[in-house]
Amino acid sequence: MATGRTHRPATRSRGIPEATVARLPLYLRALTALSERSVPTVSSEELAAAAGVNSAKLRKDFSYLGSYGTRGVGYDVEYLVYQISRELGLTQDWPVVIVGIGNLGAALANYGGFASRGFRVAALIDADPAMAGKPVAGIPVQHSDELEKIIEDNGVSIGVIATPAGAAQPVCDRLVAAGVTSILNFAPTVLTVPDGVDVRKVDLSIELQILAFHEQRKAGEEAAASDGAGPVPAGRDSAAASADKGPDGDVPAVMPA
Amino acid sequence: MATGRTHRPATRSRGIPEATVARLPLYLRALTALSERSVPTVSSEELAAAAGVNSAKLRKDFSYLGSYGTRGVGYDVEYLVYQISRELGLTQDWPVVIVGIGNLGAALANYGGFASRGFRVAALIDADPAMAGKPVAGIPVQHSDELEKIIEDNGVSIGVIATPAGAAQPVCDRLVAAGVTSILNFAPTVLTVPDGVDVRKVDLSIELQILAFHEQRKAGEEAAASDGAGPVPAGRDSAAASADKGPDGDVPAVMPA
DNA sequence: GCGTGTGAATGGTTTCACAGCG
DNA sequence: CGCTGTGAAACCATTCACACGC
């Protein structure tokens, strides 16, 4: 999904499907929880339930990593934690910079799961001179003039962009020029990057819009058949024309017809 | 990820693929930008470039909505903005509650894109009594005791969870019981919900781990990667692929199986 | 002509179902 | 016997290529 020419034409025989890669962190988290409770082994069924997927999918996913299970028994928790960690590259240390220390950037800097597993916040960077030196999550914010130097000195290859939309592309360009090859983008913009650079985006408003779509669809279907699977608890109908109850008279007015 | 029951396409009309739905917000954003610059029409090629997808995909996506383009010309920007907004349900107002007003919750409350398009922060809720009454982003935080009342009074059907992991499931249960049917979860946990409730998750650490995987692969392309998928649990320590440079003391004990 | 709209071809992912092994 | 590992089938998504209509 990065650039136009995104094709990696079968780099090597090393072919773990993208969809599987995206689930490995989920399995890892579930396994870590089991590990902390000193559970020695799990079946695909149990682990799948904990990770919120189905067991056939999980077994297929693991089959791409190798045969790490024992038939008739299940998977060794510790061993699997190690194997997945290694596959994901978490047995090494990844220094990360966060650019844009507003509300969101500060939240990310404070996020515990960040440091907990392989990732380390190497620096916080902001364009506002007034922020410089101010500690956030115990780390002093540095001015963006230092960006290139910070990247190089720390061998940073992963950058997190938490700037306003307008600043995202320029920041991205500088990160890439300085040597960053993976970017996690929280700004609501499509980033353009050269080949070989990975971009993943996290976009609140896109997620909300997807939810709204499904929500609207649910509201439009009050003629359920005899399925009767899920009795929605409070049978209160919601979210129709909402021009009546709101304490706030603000109308969004997205578009006239 | 859409919860449980796959919707039967029995109702022949609205069968928009999930992948398409996920891209509509992207198109909408690009179109809105064009609209603000008073661009009257776009070709699939141009719009696709702005949205970061390829044009065949975009045309196929739009074909699910109907035939809104003009051959030889392109798409009318304003008209398409309206059609997509309507399809996504953004022509109505969606009151949203945010639960958990820590760093992240505050960031979300302050996020501009939130209110800008169809969504309205109806309330901020936190379990900490000390937070109650304190305004965040101009909205006073309310205590979680009020949760059910708030949901009902405001007809909220979308909830955002930004609590610590441990609190997420209980909060989720209460939201659902009170009538929420769509949840955006920022806590690093798998949420269990009844049928008919949609959950989407945003998970920083999963995204970072996916990036790390690709980053590691890139690094491994310079050095001949030694294949680690050996026979059975005997040669498991062949993890020499990547130079172990990190002082990461957290490596789990290697298991002989 | 030009660019949309769409069947058909391709590629990837999920699910099924069962063989195989501890 | 129970549970993993995996071909094969079913499903979904993307890409191709071209007919069609402005």
- Chain pair sharing the greatest interface: A-B, 107 and 111 residues
> Main sheet of chain A?
7 strands, mixed
Taken in chain order, the helices and strands of chain A follow as HEHHEEHEHHEEEHEHEEH
How big is the Rg of chain A?
23 Å
Count of alpha/pi helices of chain A: 9
Q: So, the CATH homologous superfamily of the largest domain in chain A?
A: NAD(P)-binding Rossmann-like Domain
- The general outline of chain A is globular
**Count of DSSP strands of chain A:** 10
Q: Helical amount among residues of chain A, as a percent range?
A: 25-40%
Oligomer: homodimer
Please identify, by name, the CATH architecture of the largest domain in chain A.
3-Layer(aba) Sandwich
The first-level CATH class name of the largest domain in chain A: Alpha Beta
As laid out across the biggest beta sheet of chain A, the strand order is: 6-7-5-4-8-9-10
How much strand content do the residues of chain A show? 15-25%
CATH fold label of the largest domain in chain A: Rossmann fold
Number of domains of chain A: 2
Spans of at least 5 consecutive residues with low confidence of chain A: 1-13, 223-257
> What distance separates the N and C termini of chain A?
34 Å
Mean pLDDT across every amino acid position of chain A: 84
Structural class of chain A: alpha/beta
